[in-house]
Design goal:
single chain; alpha+beta; 13 helices; 20% strand
Length: 554
Amino acid sequence: MTANPEPLRDRIPHVTDDEKKPRRPSGPLRVTAGALAGAVAGFASLALAELVTAAVRPQAGPVVAVGGAAIDRTPAAVKDWAVRNFGTDDKLVLRLGILAVLTLFAFALGIAALRFRWAGAAGVVLFGVVGALAAIGRPDSRGLSDTLPSLVGAGAGAAVLLFLAGRLAWREPGSAEEPGSGEGSGPGSGDDWDRRGFVIAATAAAVASAGAGALGRSLNGASGRDAVASRDRLVLPAPGSPADAVPRGTGLRIPGVSPFITPSGSFYRVDTALVVPKVDATTWRLRVHGKGVSRPVVLSFDDLLRRDLVERDITLTCVSNEVGGPYVGTARWTGARLADLLAERGVRPPSRGGPADQLVARSVDGMTIGSPVEDVMDGRDALLAVGMNGEPLPFDHGFPVRMVVPGLYGFVSACKWITDIELTTFDAYDPYWVKRGWARRAPVKTQSRIDTPKPFARPGAGPLMVAGVAWAQHRGIDKVEVRVDDGPWQEARLAAEDSRDTWRQWSFPWRATKGGHTLTVRATDRSGRVQTERRTRTVPDGASGWHSVVVTVE
């Protein structure tokens, strides 16, 4: 006999009472609350991370770490575009962009948590893992401790999201907290959840997070107070070799022309630091070592101040400066001669048989900048600068010590917050910018700029002074010429020269006639090299071309 067939009812899957209930849609108010829950969780994550950075270091925070990683991986052309369009605000734009992306990410996680609470929390944790990996991958990483702000913050954010998502869970009819008859509540409305409880919980979480963030910011500020105090107490020694007085006639009294000496507060700043390092001068050290260094040394700030200091007017130029751009300025720098220090340690330039042809300077934030040893030791005033325009270096410009080398673009010479000098070779090591497609060697190109009239100005007909600046550091400017439309080149009047390491102002009296005109300028340096017409972008070794402005004379 065959077995009796299985009853039909036993073959039908059992459906629970809960599974029989239709899934209720999330109304717009609940979705908005979900997005708000994600935003509060994200805020809690960043705030707790800020608090933890006070025990680690500000550079380990998730926004700074991710921003730094983004800068490191940005193609040279994109970085060049950012500097060109946002100027020295490029880092602020980056941070705001990161926060905007995180906010949208938090909204999405909060909405997802309405149905999948643990998936939303896992998304917050994923954010923490990304921040931790970015922090530990930074050049100046201090190891696993740098992962703590991101991981602790992510854990706090995940907990907040789980808690708030719980307040957004559906409430069953007949429960002790069944919704009332207010707008948007009631069966089938999609909004029968604990709105009052959610508002209270979200407000409490936001207030607690704000308190944690404020405490972290305060503690971080306190950690930099020693550095600020060390700068405030500093009185620079009188230089043994002071700069000569700026010659009369060096600065033209023409409205619109850049001043000969750029005020420190107006001096351009282009670097990769999202958080400006605050280094205590009393604990600062500089290590000098590497190939050909027969007597390695570690110097303190007091050791540096006890050396014979010199004071020089030097014009610096950023390689990101477009033709006619603003990233050039002149300051009076005070510092110790770098060549003297290297010679004392046994270093010889390649032309005298030295084994090292590259000097790699390292900053406290991990930046590496490579300079030709030959250029640093050829007699030019390459400095370990401690002062700028008669005062200690501002923090933005490298306090307590930075490098200044006339005639080289900043990306191959101007290491700020310097803490290490290693002698090596170009074949053995590629510094930060070289790895990103920039040139190993980059002497400043001969350039000139029209400061007045401004582009698209509408001056009146008659006598008009055209004026600006020209530079060719360590070669000097010999001549500046101006052309109106397609007319002949006419020589401009040069202001007095301070030194071949500074820019030079120029002026050209023009009798302006009505209509549209193009004014073009070019310079010739002391080597006889005429500024090239050929336009190139800043990558890999600086922009070139003639600067022109278009005006309409009325």
